[in-house]
Amino acid sequence: MGADSGNGVRQVPTFCPLCVSKCGAIATIKDGTFVSLAPDPSHPTGQALCIKGKAAPEVVNHRDRLRYPLKRTTPKGAADPGWQRIGWDEALDTIAARVAAAAGEHGPESVVFASASPSTSAMSDSIDWLNRLRRAVGSPNFAVYMELCGWGRMLAPMFTFGAPVPGAYLPDLDNAGCILFWGYNPSVARLAHATATAAALRRGAKLVVVDPRRAGLASKAAHWLRVRPGTDAALAMAMTQVMIERGWYDEDFVRRWTNAPLLVRRDTGRLLRGNEVFAEGDPAHYVAWDGQVAQPVAYDPATGQYDTDESRLALRPHLIWGCCGSQDPA
Ligand code: SF4
């Protein structure tokens, strides 16, 4: 806690919890009242605050802010809910008893937990605890809304790394030589990313922005790719094509962590199955090409194992396995 400077004013290093950006900040407390929030440039995410962060004292001090648990005393639908202030212990006991009763009578699956989005609310700091409580109750149900950017941020790591990356992570913008924003405007969505990107541009990094609008840092981008809304996939496919043609990918990684080695049927466009190639083949298995011995090999998705060493898998086959076992020059 910051020391009193002698006139009843204290400066307290903190961070703004109002979204996942968690911008480092200095809170000014005057005579015990929180009066202002300012950026803390000594903090990794403290180069700037958005208008919401600057308005934090209004949120904290607003006369309508809910500061205590309230209990409804009239039936739902009544014109006046009859809110009555209760203590925290009574509130917790009431909620725990209701949850335990529902779980006991109908099973824990009957209980649904719900939350504001952690990306854009103060739930950012509490969401993990809420999930721990949900798991302790045994409920699989969690209702949470998510912003458009959240789907990409959460699901892209799941597809890329096999697991979600916690929302508070910061890409390595300090060391990035090229930064790609795809439908992302951190100037309004995540200030810490915007300020870190501006610093990266000052030291010479290149920025590419894919966005129908020239929004935020798009005006400073080396390339602003103004796609028509809904055509992102075409751009992504085109970029992927160029990367494949020019070999701009890590072959070992692609063999080990993607489905690129798996063969696709020409006639159906679907992945070739083990029973379509091997006499005793398993329909649950897929098929790749062992480039060293020029033969098909099975892949078991349940174990993630090929019937050969992964380093031998062909990524650019000169032979493609057609349907029903025929070999067909590509
Ligand atoms: S971007 Fe704004 S709301 Fe989010 S943490 Fe920073 S100052 Fe707070």
TrEMBL record:
Every 4Fe-4S Mo/W bis-MGD-type domain range: 9-64
Keywords for the protein's UniProt record, in alphabetical order: Iron, Iron-sulfur, Metal-binding
Pfam name, any one: Molybdop_Fe4S4
Domain of life: Bacteria
GO molecular function: iron-sulfur cluster binding; metal ion binding; oxidoreductase activity
InterPro entries for this protein: Mopterin_OxRdtase, Mopterin_OxRdtase_4Fe-4S_dom, Prok_Mopterin_Oxidored
Protein name: 4Fe-4S Mo/W bis-MGD-type domain-containing protein
Originating organism: Amycolatopsis panacis
Source lineage: Bacteria, Bacillati, Actinomycetota, Actinomycetes, Pseudonocardiales
